[in-house]
Design brief:
Oligomer: single chain
Number of domains: 1
Radius of gyration: 17 Å
Number of helices: 9
Largest sheet: none
Order of helices and strands: HHHHHHHHH
Distance between the termini: 44 Å
Strand content: under 5%
Length: 208
């Protein structure tokens, strides 16, 4: 495999596993498992909820970050400088919490809105850590979803184990991609994944 192809694939994984997209992907995975909690949601409503989640966790925050880039508030959409990540993380935390609040009002099974509460917590942790260290936000997000599904697999006695294994593979490929692009050091990658996984696993095992 040529270096150009490797860089293309690394960029591809970085884009599709962007932290703002992870809540939407998580909801789609939970909807596709077919367990009793997802089956309680009427099929037409699933598409409505998916649209709401992608709008509040991805499209609106991404648009605001694009405006920040347009008005030269950040130098690049990749935000290579640690200081440039502060405002986008605040925006992310606010809209993640808004999503949590909206899902809770709909009276869904706690599984769905607890994930968004955990995602909000991780955004705040990412903000606090970024004040002094450029931790990997991609890996915090992927660690979060991995930790959530690890807890679900444990609590359901293996129902989510297939999804967890796929997530572990995707996490590994994304970590390799971030290293390939020299966006982070190995320490920043490992620390991000550990923070995400431990936080979400603890939340799910203690609350659900």
């Amino acid at each position: 495999m040529t270096d150009k192809v490797e860089h293309f694939l690394a960029h591809l994984f970085s884009v599709f596993m962007h932290p703002l997209l992870i809540p939407g992907w998580t909801f789609l995975v939970l909807m596709s498992t077919g367990n009793f909690m997802s089956l309680q949601i009427p099929f037409p409503m699933r598409w409505t909820l998916t649209g709401i989640i992608f709008t509040t966790t991805f499209f609106i925050p991404a648009l605001m970050i694009l405006l920040m880039w347009h008005f030269k508030m950040i130098s690049s959409l990749r935000m290579p400088l640690r200081s440039e990540r502060m405002a986008p993380l605040v925006i992310t935390a606010v809209f993640f919490y808004l999503t949590y609040y909206l899902l809770k009002q709909i009276n869904l099974a706690p599984l769905f809105y607890f994930y968004m509460l955990g995602a909000t917590t991780l955004a705040i942790f990412g903000l606090l850590i970024t004040m002094w260290w450029k931790i990997s936000l991609h890996m915090i997000a992927l660690g979060g979803i991995s930790g959530a599904f690890a807890a679900l697999a444990l609590l359901s006695r293996g129902e989510y184990i297939s999804a967890l294994l796929i997530l572990l593979i995707i996490s590994g490929l994304t970590a390799s991609s971030r290293l390939k692009l020299r966006a982070h050091t190995p320490g920043e990658i490992y620390a991000g994944y550990a923070v995400g996984a431990l936080t979400m696993f603890s939340l799910f095992t203690l609350v659900l």
